[in-house]
Amino acid sequence: MSTISAMGVGSGIDIRGLVDQLVAAERKPREMQIERSETRIKDQMSGLGRLRSALATFGDAANKLNQASTFRQIETRVTSEGVLSATGTSTAPLGNYDVNVVHLAQAQRMVTRADMFSGVTDFSASGTALGSGEMTFSFEGGGSETITIADGASSSLNSWAAAINSQSSRLTASVVDDGSGPRMILTSAETGQANAVTGIAVNADDPSSLIGNFAATMSGLAQNDTDGGFTLLRQARDAEVQIDGMTVTRSTNEISNAIDGVTLTLSSTGDSRVIVGEKQGAARTAVEDFVKAYNTLIGEFSRLGAFDKDSNTAGLLNGDATLRSVQTQLYRIISDPVGPTDSPVRILADMGISTEKDGTLKIDDARLTQRLSEDREALVSFFTDGDHGLAKRLGGFVDNFTGRDSPINSRNDSLQRQLRGIEDQRERLDYSMERLEMRLISQFSAMDAMVAQMNQTSDFLSNQMALMQANTRAARR
């Protein structure tokens, strides 16, 4: 604010202090009004944020109700856990299944023959070179892989094993010493006959190099038999199981779709019974969770719109039109009938759910138990029906109020604009107070100058009167 030095000298009045007090008195009510408006706007924005969050949480609960699996949870048991394990989805039919595991799936394994490198004793990186070139592996299920060591590169049994491990996605290699010298073991990365190596072709840069010894034909080879450079240690095999007498094969020990909605994981050969049952209480839990989520939402409505007469305090959205609109639409949705007119479950009351005076829901356990026993499918359809189910209605309701173009977002945008307007009001108030200060200083300064002039005149007159009195007294003497 503007300042003027030596104000009040003429009159003796503290003009600076007087102006500050007058400006402060003029500013305070207008500033308080601005602050009240700002607080009100921020409270409403906070309330809308809480409302949006509460609706989103309730929407998550409603989406769960739109899934049949929420009302039907499957549990599986096996009589021989050492043979297999089983997991099921909500689509699995209930029942018992006799399973006989005939074979486990296994990966092919082979090793270089014992006399493959007779007389060679050193296969370290700096030892005897096998030679460079290409090894091409063909597989029973089709396709091939070519492993390469460039011409001139150091080539040992270990370096070829490293090349296979880095370049192949279908084989792993290792080098072991069985006491008679180093040998390379090749193992299929995946189980099943389709992943078995049927042949190994070698294209050596030097036809006379030892790499040529790796060539072999593995197709049709029996276990422990040898062809070319390799002996078959273990044949590739598909898993084979009999389920209620029906033979099923897979390339892995995880078998899906042999029993609808059930996955079997095989551990060993043998017999086991797979029991698929429904987890008790899943549907009841789903209904109870819905009621709990709904009541939590209603509780938030009550807090946001509350008014306490005793303390004269109000909720953040007390009297708010958006909150009233949300409440009205929600109450209408849960009250409207759902599904065909001949369905035994068309409203919440049909399954024993009533509305309390405070708007919350209450479950009649006996009535709900009866519906779950007698009309379970109708109850589930009440929530999950794709066209008219309550879950779909509630999901649409939540999306309408929380989506990008929702009334809550539009209202929040409007409040943001009002909040920016508050800053404009503060700037205008500061400008207005500066002008008021300047005007008061000008007026009081003029008054001060006038008082100073009057004081000077008064002093002059007083001096003249004193002089006249003195002259009069002297003349009388």
From TrEMBL:
Q: Which residues form a coiled coil?
A: 412-439
Q: What does this protein do?
A: Required for morphogenesis and for the elongation of the flagellar filament by facilitating polymerization of the flagellin monomers at the tip of growing filament. Forms a capping structure, which prevents flagellin subunits (transported through the central channel of the flagellum) from leaking out without polymerization at the distal end.
Give the protein's recorded name.
Answer: Flagellar hook-associated protein 2
> Which GO cellular component terms, listed alphabetically, does the Swiss-Prot or TrEMBL entry include?
bacterial-type flagellum filament cap; bacterial-type flagellum hook; extracellular region
Q: Where in the cell is it found?
A: Secreted; Bacterial flagellum
Q: Subunit details for this protein?
A: Homopentamer.
Presence of the UniProt keyword Coiled coil in the record: yes
Ordered alphabetically, the record's keywords are: Bacterial flagellum, Cell projection, Cilium, Coiled coil, Flagellum, Secreted
Q: Which InterPro entries match?
A: FliD, FliD_C, FliD_N
What's this protein's family per the entry?
Belongs to the FliD family.
